[in-house]
Amino acid sequence: MGVKYAWQLLHNKGLIPDSQDKVSLVSTASKIRVDVCSTHYTSIRHYYSNPTDLNVAHAKLERLLLKIDDKNKLRFYIDGLPAAEKGQTHANRHQSRQKDLIKASTAISNLESRLVEGKRIRKHHFTSANKPLRQAFHWSLEGRMSFVEYMANKDYDIVLCPTESDVLIAAECQTDDAVISCDSDLLFYKTVPVVWRPVGSYKSRRFVPFEKNAVLEALGLSSTQLTTLAIVSGNDYVTNIPHLAITSNLKKLNSLHGDEMSIIRQYLADTQVKRRTDLEGDKWSEESYANAVKVFVMMQQSIASDSSPPSSAASNDSIAPEDPTKDTSEDSAQGASLSYTSLRERMDCFTIAFANFKTNAYEARVAKRDAETEINVVNPFATIDKQHSANTHQYRPRFSPKVRFGPSKEQPAPAISMQYILKPWREPPEKPSLPEPSKKKPAAAIKNEISEDDRFGRKEMMGALRFEHPIVTLDLDRLSSNVHAAVENDPLSKAIVECIRGAVRAAYDSKRQCQVLVGLYLEDLFYPSPTPGVPRPAVPVAVISQQDQSILDNLCPRLSSNEMNDDNNNVSSAGDGQDDGSNTPFIHSLLTFLYSGNLPTKGKTGSAVNTFIGRLQEMGHLEKSQVAKADMIKSVKEYTPNFVARSVASQMSAELKRHYRHGTKMVSEKVQTMIKKKKLASDKAVDLTAKKPAIQLFVEANATAGRPWRLSPLSPEEDGYMTFTEIELAAFLHKRDELHPILNKLIGCKDKRRLAQEDVTRDWLSFQTPGVLIQRLIAPVDPRTLDGDRLRGRQKKKAGIAAAVRVVEPEELRAHINTLRGDVFDPRTYQEKGYFLCGSIKTDGYQLQLLAYKVRELNSVKFKRYKNDVLPDRLLTTTAGTSDFLTEVRNVFKTPADVERLLGCTTDETDKVSYMGIDLGQAFVAGTYGHLPQDNTPKIGKRRHHRKQKKRGSRGRRNRGSGKGKKKSVCQAQGERHINLAAKQKAVARPTLRHRTWMEQHKMADLKITSSPSITNTESAAPPTISQPSTSSTEAATTEFLSIRTIESSLPPLRGANASFADHVECSKAYKYHLDKFYNGQRFRFKKYKRMSKKARQREFERLTDSLLRMVGGSIGEKKKEDAKIVIGIGMGRFTSTSRLSSLHGTFESYFIQKARSLGYLVVGVHEFYTSKKCPTCGNFVGQAESIWRLYCYHCKKYMHRDVMAGHNIVNIVQSHVEQQERPLYLHPVDKDGHYPWLEHGCETAAQPRDAPSSLKQASSSGGRAGRAGRKRRAEADGNAERGGKRTKATMAKGKDKATTTKDKANAMQVDS
Q1: What is residue 448's predicted lDDT score, i.e. its pLDDT?
Q2: What DSSP state is assigned to residue 921?
């Protein structure tokens, strides 16, 4: 406890030293003495409350003590036995702990009774039990002795004091030592020079040094008076006289002198003190202060006579030896039987029981309600704006543009900046000559109309729609919610969902098993191990057998002539392998065998698969007994093996081609780059024209480059998306007996006979319109009114994407196709919208996606099957698709006729065109500038907000006449307007970053993993890469705590020099259960939050896009007006980054372009040369101020944002091309001779834009170069009022010389121009 109110007294006297870190204080002391019990009492109570292992608690306290300094400079002191001089204090503390134990016992009993009775348990019920339980804690003497022994074994300087640690510290302290303690009594010993008081949390612990000389000077006392002040002002040995605390005693002791006993006699003889002692019954005399004088002056203590070590080593409640008095009250009699350890165990047991109760109650509630219905849960990753304050000028919502009227005021120049200067243009190096491109196949001719006599079945309908319209993927949210909405019968909907999820899991497991076998086969083939346990060779085998070459060709076709190296023009056709679809039957047959266990039938493909299976048996990756058994008895699976394998075969075939064929090309380019950098010898180049399989070429190139790619593609543990057609879904559902009634009802079969699978898939579904089974059983698309009509207006908008999907009858579908194939059809007038179901779904077991034909777009226009005179313009319509490809503005506005065709105005009417320039980047996703004509007003400040509740007493009337109730628009003023917006990546990427944080937190959570050597199940065994104590087969099961992050990081690598595919697969099998539970279990928690993160990021994109379109008078929720003339320019710069979310700007660019084009806006690309280095107003080079994003123009005397300035320059470029069909002169590159290489005649002077300022003609173009970035440091002279700043004379002279040189070069450059 220390001296009462000592720290408050020092604070009131103004003695408040600045807190310092340990580094600045350690150098001031030769020895640091730490009072452990007083300094870290809170942590000790936390570590030793109920430790399962005492060594763990010792280790935690050790780590905490080492944060102070190196152990060589520290000496730790631990309290020993109770002191006789402190008997009354021990008795009071013991009595207080007994009362706390009684309170805790009562509170725990209350919690247990409420749990049994089923009553609600609130937070204050737990607080009423935990608070007194914490206060009743006592660190036992046995625990302290165990900690001293633990620290002594590690060579720490630690001592177990005979009694109190502060007495021994004061006795051993030297003049240059420092003491760390939270008790104030150490400050009053004469031998202690300084006390460091710890403050702050343990993560950011700092110390406040109280030096003895500073304390004496602040209080105006001598060292003897300070010690006497501690004796008479209340401490652990004697209490103070009532109403005479440390502040009152300080005034009295200032005038008293002598030794300690003499000052005490004078103090007791004082009139006020004597009056107080007489009122209290003369309890204070010289004898009552004898114990305190013995401790503070003589620094001596005696051990209490009844002190003895406790018998239990783990007890924290051994407080009986410290109680010299006895209380016969009823509470004490009840508390005598209480034990801190027993109460702590009761509380821990109750906490576990309460957690189980909460889990069971939650599961009961979930089971009671429909677990598969959609719940309006708040998206944890969504970004919510703050509430608007009363003063709207103090808060501006996210992604809201800034509007400024008129020119900005001049601003003082920065002290130091990086001035951008001219960097002469250099012609790019000539690229090597490319081979002549192969002749493209002519576009397919438009097919004939379909007559009514033609057999127009399901297959023909899907083929006709695929020829006319592109296929898109529509996201319909959760699978379970869609099935529940389509099938109102709850048991049937659950059965359908379980059936589809089982098919997804079966298909994905087959795919991963096939990938594992392919990877193991390739590793044993190219990197064979001579004997088990010996490392595999680093160089792959160069020669393989003809049989293995055939297997590799079946897995992946060989490289075609177009995929060969571009430097070899004369490529023979001998290297050409099979066609692109040749490996799909092989993969399909192999997957069918892996799922069903049945060997493929005889034939060309079956023989090839059997050969591969035989090779796997020889290598030991497949057991011969299982294959033989499966060959004799045809196994029956829950799902049709042919359909399960089909959903994966095409997907895996494409992955193998992408990995080996495209990967070979990428790795060979990397090898060429390494050869150019002289990291590899020139003879290491990869010869892609060699007559080898594509996989062998890939393995050799990958080994040469250091194995940057995996040996074989391997899907993650998370179940991926699988595609199922309606025929496959019908076959899967037919396998379930409980779903036969709903299939009979769907087909219209009145009798209750069991239908065969062919009756559903071949005889009925083959002649139905695509999407019938999906609409009835999977997703409620194409909703209708009670009259059977399709939804319109608000009902259609409320239904969302489900109302846009149509399930049409065969007659309507035939009419639609005949209209497109008619002779009088004009694609320029095509206005159809919506989607036609393709008859297939994509799902990962949690989310549902539909494959549909996009009716708005035509493949005939996209692939130019019509003549050029009837094809619609791709820049004005979306009939050919809304791709994110940008056409440069110089290729868009070539002539005035292009301006009139695209914008509907002549060159004299271009002043009515609105422009917007967007510069994309990494730190700032979009820097935007808008230029509007005089009669156009942006939609800023008009976004809808939620209606606020009316104030109490308000009638809700509007002040129509006075205009007080109206909200004024910020853009009502006419004249020059400057609108800009800079969207930070931090704002747009917040949902993604929150999801990453959530993932890291849950991956770092420990899992309890039990492994037994006697159990052969590999799902509970630990991987060999994680160190574990070796156990024999007879030992008991071991339990370890690992996290998902630890498991994934401990797996052997799949890439690099030490990559091992076999070891990775073997280790991943050990924790397959836990990884699968994390990614696919727990009610799809991982997939659920992943989907929420994507939806939140999509909303951020939508909000940013809406803000950008509002700058030019548009909105994301409406089409562009027909009379609006708007051009949007986007910078075409491309860059990559290895840090942060480098691809976010690219993702937003693709989204914005497609969204803007779908709304009717004209979007063009702009070359970004000089857009971030020159001022858009004057054309001069700007200077970089405090950061790379803050620029300053010395001509205009104003600051600018880098990306916003680039957006302004992009607007100037687009405007110049619209008006004069050429780029502004100040944004043209200049070569070393002063010519413009981008102009048709580089030595001639280009015409200036019509509205460009006159200063562009005299724009400074310094001819020097400074560094790779083409900029120099510019410092301002002290006497130059135009530039400002302070410098020394030498720096001023140096800057003057540089300025003169730069000016001469500029004049010379202008003369040459």
Answers
A1: 65
A2: -
Q: How far is CA 893 from the centre of its chain?
A: 42
Residue 852, classed as helix, strand or coil, is strand
Alpha carbon 1106 to its chain centroid, in Å, reads 24
Whole-number Å distance between alpha carbons of 597 and 637:
9
Q: In whole angstroms, how far apart are CA 615 and each of 475, 623, 1063?
A: 43, 11, 20
Q: What is residue 91's predicted lDDT score, i.e. its pLDDT?
A: 87
Annotate 617-668 with DSSP letters as a single string. Answer: HHHTSS-HHHHHHHHHS----SS-HHHHHHHHHHHHHHHHHIIIIIHHHHHH
Sign of the dihedral through C-alpha 631, 632, 638, 640: positive
The stretches of 118-245 forming alpha helices (DSSP H) are 123-135, 141-153, 165-172, 212-219, 223-232
Q: How far apart are CA 678 and CA 672, in angstroms?
A: 10
CB 1246 within 8 A of CB 1222: yes
Q: Which residues contact 112 (CB under 8 A, 6 or more apart)?
A: 346, 350
- Give the residue ranges of the chain where pLDDT is below 70: 1, 19-27, 52, 202-204, 280-282, 306-337, 365-378, 383-409, 415-418, 428-457, 561-581, 624-636, 750-752, 935-978, 1008, 1010-1038, 1135-1145, 1240-1313
Distance from C-alpha of 497 to C-alpha of 373, rounded to nearest angstrom: 13
Residue 409: what pLDDT?
Answer: 66
Residue whose C-alpha is closest to residue 98's, from 124, 123, 122, 133:
133
Distance CA 130, CA 132 (A): 6
**What residue has token string 């795919």?**
511
Give the three-class secondary structure for 35.
Answer: strand
Closest to 383 (Cα-Cα) out of 1104, 1088, 926? 1104
CA angle (1114 as vertex; 1111, 1115 as ends), nearest 5: 105
The pTM (predicted TM-score) of the whole model is 0.64
Instruction: Give the angle 109-111-117 at the CA atoms, nearest 5°.
Output: 100
List helix spans (H) across 800-837.
801-804, 810-820
Spatial separation of the C-alpha atoms in residues 909 and 1217, rounded to whole Å: 14
**Crossing angle between the packed helical segments 1085-1110 and 990-1003, to the nearest 10 degrees:** 170
